[in-house]
Amino acid sequence: MIVTIIDRLTETNPQIMREWQGRLTPKNISIASVISLVGQLLVYLYYQNLLPVGAGFSRYCTANPPHNNDYDPYSGLKYCIQDLNGQWMIISRLWWLDIFTFLSITGIFALLVVGTYQLIADLSGEERRGTLNFIRLSPQPARTIFIGKIFGVPILLYLVCLLALPFHLGAGLLAGIPLSLILAFYAVLIASCAFFYHAALSFALATPWLGGFQPWLGSATVLIFVFYSSIFTLSGPNGRTPFDWLILFNPSFVLPYLVKSTFLPPDAVRYLGISQIFDLRWYGQSLWQSVIMGISLILLNFALCTYGLTRILQRRFHNPLATLISKPQSYWMMGYFSAISLGFVFQTLEPSYIFDNFVILSVFVAIFGLLILFALTPPRQTLQDWARYRHLQGKKGISLGKALIFGEKSPSTLAMAVNLAIAILFILPAIFIAPLHQYKLATAAGFLLAMNMILVYAAIAQLLMLASTNKRALLAATSIGILIIFPFLCFAVLRVNPSQSPLLWFFTFLPIAATKYATLPSFALAIFSQWLGLTLVGWQINRQLNRLGASATKALIPS
To answer: Per residue in 189-245, pLDDT tens?
Structure first.
């Protein structure tokens, strides 16, 4: 039976077997099994050690303290007593819940961080060895190959987690969590793995110039995100900001549903309070109060984002010179991002809070715009070919504007302008509708200035991508990073506050921080200066494209 299943799996997806053959050796299986079983034993012994063994205090005791000085309200430890049979009276459900929560958080970290590292390291290693080109030549579709990677590369990690599954499931059931909710948590965890693993493979294909630094950078980013979002979920209420959307990408966000289902007193559990879910609002609606709707929305969010990443993988895998996304795809992505993130701004009606949320939203859109910029910018050779033969497109009835907005190989500057226009069309009307009161004009002006600065960064990046050096992508990314970070470092050293010199802040990554203190002439001067700089950079881009588009014969003929 097992042989038949393996044979059928080999026929449907040979890539899985290719990955398994090199990893599922008896030695590796033994090491993974020992790590999992010993880890489970250590967790059990650790929590067993927390149970009372003598007169004293414990988190799991049930009795009320006989005296006021026998209870510490800050630590939550209770005085321990024994029943008539000499057994300690403890809250066994709470003990099992702690084990379940610890195993859940540990599993999330292991699957997301370690799995991300393994996938990026494997794909970048195949790229360096040249074996990835042989895989590209195979008749298998890109989707089959990457499914094989996702199911095959972290197979030993999956084995560690599968061996811990009975202990985890048993702890959850003994804690009083319904089986349906535990299975829902597993579904969210699987969906999150699919999202992060697709993101890891996309990152590996998009940044081959990082070399061996790729897996460390990718896994470190995931580690930082999971660490801080887990702390946020475990300890505090939601911050009522657009950052709450990012928390939805951490599977631990659904754990409060499971804790609530145990009906243990919140004062006894002291973590994973349901308030951070119930207080979460999207366009003013408390959609996460219902367990079914809340988990369904989380799964839908993962599904849509993972689908976008699969399109990136399919596009880039068979053509390494293609941009990560097409221009029409970028417009859909910007529209989705703007609509979703805007909804988390309206979690309160306090004008100052809404203004702060729009500041955060402005940063979000700017960062996402930069990601789209690097996903849209073609390599130099592609731009050279487009510039050389663009006159032929006019004969085919394709106008220059249409080629710049929808074309696959054209420069990305005009497409970035369209993306930013989409964000403005979504967000600017919301600014005027929102109860911002005295912050309304400052918010609108700051958001427009931020979008202009992103367009300036886009033009500079496009110009740098036309350079003759082999490290064009690294040069563009480093230069934009310096343009973003350097002004803030200078302001910090010189102590330049937004209230003192708002005009200087208008030319940074965060102009909205200074618009409350600016006058209309300074705002007009900033807009004029931004568009003047954009015009000059655009003129230089066109000049470079004309030079690159000149034929080799024409370049040899003296003028």
So the answer is: 999 999 999 999 999 888 887 777 888 998 999 999 999 888 877 765 566 788 888
Give the burial class of 264: count Cβ atoms within 10 A of its Cβ; 0-12 exposed, 13-18 middle, 19 or more buried. Answer: middle
* pTM listed for this prediction: 0.87
Q: Which helix (H) or strand (E) holds 215?
A: helix 214-235
Select from 342, 348, 335 the least CA-distant residue to 242. Answer: 342
CA distance 120 to 202: 9
DSSP code for 79: E
Both tokens of 80, joined, read 């321990």
Tell me the H-state helices in 238-280.
Answer: 243-247, 255-261, 266-269, 275-278
- Do 245 and 97 touch, CB atoms closer than 8 A? no
Which tokens go with 206?
Answer: 């998009």
Nearest to 511 by CA among 487, 495, 532, 535: 487
Residue-wise pLDDT for 128-138, tens only, equals 887 777 777 77
The residues, any chain, with a CB within 8 Å of residue 499's CB and separated by 6 or more, are: 514, 516, 517
Separation between Cα atoms, residue 474 and residue 443, nearest integer Å: 34
Question: 22 near 147, Cβ under 8 Å?
Answer: no
Distant-in-sequence, close-in-space partners of 310: CB < 8 Å, separation ≥ 6: 143, 146, 198
Rg (CA), the chain: 28
- Tell me the two tokens of residue 314: 């399919």
* Start-to-end CA span in the chain (Å): 78
DSSP string, 354-407: HHHHHHHHHHHHHHHHHHHHHHHPPPHHHHHHHHHHHHHHHHTT--HHHHHHH-
Q: Is 242 exposed, middle or buried (CB count within 10 Å of its CB: 0-12, 13-18, 19+)?
A: buried
Which token pair is 461?
Answer: 């990046």
Nearest CA to 298 among 180, 177, 187? 187
Q: Report pLDDT digits (tens) over 382-391.
A: 777 777 776 5
